[in-house]
Every structure is written in structure tokens, then in C-alpha cells.
Amino acid sequence: MDGMIAMLPAPLQKLSSHIDFQGQKVAERTYQVILTIAGIVGFFVGFWTQQLSYAIHIVMGASAFTALIILPPWPFLFRKNPIVWQVPTEEQEETSSASPPAESSAKKDDKKKKEPKKTK
């Protein structure tokens, strides 16, 4: 995602491009409702007028409208509940930077001995 943002012009790179989890839920529900209603309306308009093109135009117009609403991360819709991350402690930073300790072969052998063998 950072590579795509780097390709944007400098003024657009400064804009925030994230949404929170509640915002994702709102965005998904919004597009589902709009496109479902547009599909139903498009079907009935197309059926009434006997023009498939009318139904397709209605659904395509609703898709464009939905994209206009959903794609920008509007702060008043999708960023109301920011995530508060915990600050890592020094212990966690040290253990995360070091590689995880490998199990010794003796411990692996003990685990194999403890596991019951499956029989048919």
C-alpha cells in the first residue's frame, strides 16, 4: 500500500488513507444496501420498460455513486473510532527482535514419547 501512495503527487500523499474497523463495517453495509436497492429498482424498471439497458444503467450508476461514497476514507464516516495501540515494553522489543529459541532435540523426543500412537 505504501508503494501505491508513493506514486501519488506530493499533496495527495499527505492525506490519510486508512479507516478503522467500525468504518469498514459501515462501508461494507453501505455498498451492500445501495447495490441491492439499485439491483431491485433496475430489475423492475427494466422489466416495466422491457429495456435491459435501463436496468444496466441504473446498476452502473449506483455502482459509481457507491464508489464515490465508499472509496475515499471520509473522516466523518469511516474514521470515528481510531484504534489505540499499546506501546511495547522494553522486554517485548528485545524478544521480538531476537529470533525465537529453537527447541532442543531432547524436548522434541519427549513430546514424541508423550503422544499416544493411533491404532486402527
TrEMBL record:
What keyword terms does UniProt attach to this protein?
Endoplasmic reticulum, Membrane, Transmembrane, Transmembrane helix
Topology in membrane: Multi-pass membrane protein
Q: Which residues form a coiled coil?
A: none
Q: Which GO terms describe its biological process?
A: protein targeting to ER; signal peptide processing
Could you list the residue ranges that cross the membrane? 30-48, 54-71
GO cellular component terms, semicolon-separated? signal peptidase complex
What is the organism of origin for this protein? Caenorhabditis tropicalis
Q: What is this protein called?
A: Signal peptidase complex subunit 1
Pfam short name (any one): SPC12
